[in-house]
Design brief:
Blueprint (H helix, E strand, L loop, with lengths): L7 H13 L8 E4 L5 H10 L8 E4 L3 H8 L1 H7 L8 H19 L6
Parallel strand pairs: 1-2
Helix pairs in contact: 1-2, 4-5
Length: about 110
């Protein structure tokens, strides 16, 4: 049984809002948790031609939590220095923080 706030209608509204933002691109695949409301909402968006038909849905229960945990150290550094003067300075600062975090973790490949 779906809760009142995590139903198909709410999921569709969430995806439409995320996709309508000017800076977002249409994804190649969408990764969501195991909430049963997401696949019908995404399929409805595909049928309404808001999303292309070839987008894959990956349902992985804890992947979002893993990503959030990976960015926790970055959030701890960025929160005290919020209020960047420009997007460019924010972008460069965050790239530097992420690069240092990847070096610390021993990643050999940086994007």
């Amino acid at each position: 049984m779906l809760s009142a706030k995590r139903n198909r209608k709410a999921a569709k509204r969430l995806f439409k809002k995320a996709l309508s933002s000017k800076h977002n691109q249409i994804p190649g695949e969408i990764t969501v948790d195991k909430n049963p409301a997401y696949p019908p909402a995404i399929n409805k968006l595909k049928n309404d031609n808001i999303l292309p038909k070839n987008i894959d849905i990956r349902q992985i229960k804890y992947l979002n939590n893993i990503i959030e945990q990976d960015h926790r150290s970055i959030k701890q550094i960025v929160n005290p220095i919020l209020g960047f003067q420009s997007f460019l300075s924010a972008n460069k600062t965050l790239k530097g923080i992420e690069a240092m975090n990847m070096i610390k973790k021993g990643h050999k490949e940086m994007i």
